[in-house]
Amino acid sequence: MRRTAPLLLALAACNAPQHHAPSIETAAGATTSEPTASAGDGSTYVGFDMLVLDANGEPLPCNDGNVSLAVKVSYDHGATWVPVRQQDTMSFCGDQVPPDLSVVLDNSGSQDAVLPAMEAGANDLIDGVLQMGGRASVVRVSTDAWVLSELTDSRQALTEAVASLKAHGGWTALYDGMRVANETIGRVLGRSEAPKYDSLAQFCEDHDRFGEVAFTNGEDNNSAQERMPSQDDDGFDTTPDDVKNLRVNGISTPMHVIGLGPRVHYDDLIDISETSGGRFVSVPDEAGIPDAFAMVRRWLETTTHACVEVPQVACGPAIVDVDYTYGQGDAAIHEHKQLDVNVACPIEPARGSTVTLLLTLGDRGISASNAASLVADAVQNVSRSARPRVLVVRDDNIHDDSPDDPAYVRDLLAAQGANVVLVDEPHDGMAVEDFAGFDVVWMSNPGWPMDDLTTFEALRRFSGQGKGVVMQGDDMSWSMGAGFPLMSLTHLDHVSNGESVCGAPVGAAHAFKVQTTSGAGVPTFSYGNDLDVSTPHGDGEEVLAWGTFDDGADCQVQTPAMVRFTP
Question: Where are the beta strands (DSSP E) in 294-417?
Fold first, then answer.
């Protein structure tokens, strides 16, 4: 069995007048430290894609004969290098790798003239994806974002989704739409366990190729509901930084953006495209829309997919150094790039207990005494020590949403005599070594999903050491953008964010009633924040508290609020 660390590298020869692509830019994971990895036998697989463009933004032909690679790897920050043998590399044209693509279509404002061209371009792009054996999803953006089709290879479903677009007034929640599009990909591709491969060819053929294409003729002005609040909003005010950080299985999602006309907010969208590894195309008028979609299709069809087998002499952070040469006739393009990767260490089966507490403990419906009881009960359920040393980790994806909640947890534990430390999660996540000396790690993000696969895998390794883990926050049943599944620790299957239940928005007037079933003995209380709607995964977990939403008429929804799992 082998370890895999897929990356995506996009290489562009130059910029076209209306096409924005860096001369060499990392895409879909070159700066990420999260691999899709499995326990290995001494090798690491790395996959990346290369796209070479001419002066007009047109892709140059891709085949094995045009590309040569020289690769080496360092596990000690560049002090020493291990070369990769030429026979341990392979490449082929990207049209042999089926892509999964989410198409985001801005249908806000008055677009009677734009709609036919947008539909034609989107349908042509989707046809190309399906012809390559891939799948597509369709997301509509206006005042809110709606999924018109989940990721599918059904041409009929996708045709009907595009045909359902109607031109009418509305604001633009574009960033929300791009996040929701990532969720359609993550729900299908998200892996709780990394696959194991027996050969380089097997890994290369199984490479997940995914991305988004977003079309807009305006600027985002309602992802934070700043223009028009709506009960259909899912409760997340998506920012450009959120979009740039979207991932699936730890790999950045390339965001290709087509912008029409002068109202487009170019700076933000170009930054999103280039940072994520995508490209931006500006279109002056509706006549150029089909050609812009067709250009994206050609990019997908002519990308070179390359894979290398790297000798694994360690696990953890590594640098992959790539020298590539692209030849066409007498001309040759040479580039060099160093990629930061993380060769994941083996994850042992869970031996420690976990508690998932789907609550923001500072919510005004939870009294201080009830919060203290919930915190004490959570730690007692996962700790094997009478006086455990607890590390509280404040997730970096907190968005200033109840940012003091992790400190509140620390203070509640300290008041009970616990030996407790609070730290802020680094942007690139934490390693299991950061948890050394602690009996319990309490992961806290009170109002947003966690986003770092590196930290999640470190928590799993910590549990494999027989230590306790608490996952706390009212969005802790899923990850940001559905980028990776959490059920191996939470033992819950995510259903929805719970912002709206039974057709009514959740709030102080219509709240969840939370009642414990055993252990804590906490009286029933009202919880006015959205609480993730989820179901027990069926691993033998025990629900210690339930949240119930009752509209007083004919709808009642019950969802876990506190769950314990003991291996």
Answer: 304-311, 316-328, 331-343, 354-357, 389-394
Residues 273 and 310 in one domain: no
Rounded Cα–Cα distance for residues 326 and 302 (Å): 13
Beta bridge partner(s), residue 73: 82, 320
- pTM recorded for the entire structure: 0.88
Dig out the tokens for 360 from the structure.
């923001």
89 shares its domain with 109? no
Q: How far apart are CA 109 and CA 217, in angstroms?
A: 9
- The whole-angstrom separation of Cα 446 and Cα 397 is 10
Cβ neighbours around 350 below 10 Å, total: 24
CATH number of the domain encompassing residue 358: 3.40.50
Q: Are residues 250 and 269 in the same domain?
A: yes
Q: Are residues 81 and 156 part of one domain?
A: no
Question: Same domain, yes or no, for 166 and 244?
Answer: yes
Contact (Cβ atoms closer than 8 angstroms) between residue 316 and residue 342: yes
CB within 8 Å of 339: residues ≥ 6 apart: 7, 9, 26, 30, 31, 46, 48, 319, 320, 321, 322
What six digits make up the tokens of 336?
A: 């060099």
What is the distance, to the nearest Å, from the Cα of residue 29 to the centroid of all Cα atoms in its chain?
11
* Domain housing 538: 354-565
Q: Is 216:259 a contact under the CB 8 Å cutoff?
A: yes
Same domain, 71 and 161: no
d(CA 43, CA 313): 8
In whole angstroms, give the CA distance from residue 23 to residue 10. Answer: 9
Q: What gap in Å lies between CA 104 and CA 143, rounded to an integer?
A: 14
Structure confidence by residue, pLDDT tens digits, 418-472: 999 999 999 989 999 999 999 999 999 999 999 999 899 999 999 999 999 999 9
Residues 242 and 260 in one domain: yes
89 neighbors 69 (Cβ within 8 angstroms): yes
Give the number of domains in the chain. 3
For 472, the 3-state DSSP assignment is: strand
The pLDDT of 29-39, averaged and rounded, is 27
The Cα–Cα gap between 189 and 209 comes to: 10
Residues 6+ apart with CB under 8 A from 515: 524, 545, 546, 548
Closest CA to 514 of 373, 353, 414: 373
Eight-class DSSP state of 435 = G
Residue 91 within a domain: yes
The one-letter amino acid code at 460 reads R
Do 161 and 232 have their domain in common? yes
pLDDT digits (tens, 9 = 90+) for 111-131: 667 889 999 999 999 999 999
Q: How far apart are CA 522 and CA 15, in angstroms?
A: 62
Distance CA 388, CA 418 (A): 7
